[in-house]
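Data's thin. Show one?
=====
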Amino acid sequence: MKPPSTSDRRVLSLFPFLLAYLLFIGTARLVKENFRLIKDQGGNAKPLSNLTNGGSLIDGCDLFDGKWVLDGGTRPLYEEESCPYLTQQVTCGTNGRPDSLYQNWRWEPHACKLPRFDAVKLLEILRGKRLMFIGDSIQRTQWQSMVCLIQSVIPPGKKSMHRNPPMKIFRAEEFNASIEFYWAPFIVESNSDHFKKHSVLKRLVKLDSISKHSRRWEGVDIMVFESYVWWMYKPIINATIGSLDNVKEYDVTNAYELALKTWANWIESNINPHTQKIFFMSLSPTHLWSWEWKAGSNENCFNESYPIQDPSYWGTGSSRDMMGIVRDTLQDLAINVTLLNITQLSEFRKDGHTSVYTERRGKLLTSEQRSDPNSYADCIHWCLPGVPDTWNEILYAYLLHDFPLH
């Protein structure tokens, strides 16, 4: 069993002290390292954006290498009140956030331009297709973002939302297209798979079991997978291989690797690369400790209004081991899976989290709770409109490239 690195072990030891906080936000990603690059097997530094089975460049341009530009003319891409599908968890403005600057930043790659998001073009690409986001609450936010980005161009009566737990399905009727979310925080099966009752203290992951989930994925045209923060709840995790009676404690990095191998086996056995397209999202950063970007401070993402300007900034929440496992898994696949490397660009956005302008157990934080951001600020989830819209703009660029309209 592969032991955790020294830096991983140091941060994972903080988990007992953060348990109450983690239960509130439902999930966490707390691995302390300062690495922007992953070492390849030859020991050479290689940017994560290049570490995909088929490469992540579009016509030679790295969409993930760029900067945030303030753009009040084209941002936000939609308004909170114009999208009835947003949940209370992510509507920071409606929930009382006094500033709105977090909605006005546009991601600008250094070597090229992102195509302007066109909802009608995307719907044409998705005509007769199913687009499914698979993962945890971070992935659910990206799904909500995508629904909001396209729903305004669909006439009333021609769109619908259906709930088929653990799925949510938005349909564009005239295009025979659906944008779906499937709850699977570990990708493989676990005792946290219930769409509501998933905040269990003793998590159990079935490292070699995926069929319960995957039968819902069969035949889906475009899939976007994501799984990370739920693995980082504690430095070890209870897991099984084979018999459910044989429960053992696994180091999370080893368990994650085994789970992704199970996922990879399913991909290779079930995906038709000529008709289906698969993406894997890199980890979504947290901004739990302000000393990372403001030396000597002892706060978090609360009351932040501007992105981090240091182009080399890399927070303490990104595990080199876990990111390396994703890299190796994708590179070893016989089928092309594209990595959407949103980690670095999202690292800069300490201002984009829901902070205290969100809910807890289905209820908005009280004024008393909001006055204690060190205890109650959620610096893991993101406001909408906001950062996840950019993730979807990049996904749109890939879809436009892979499914050209004639």
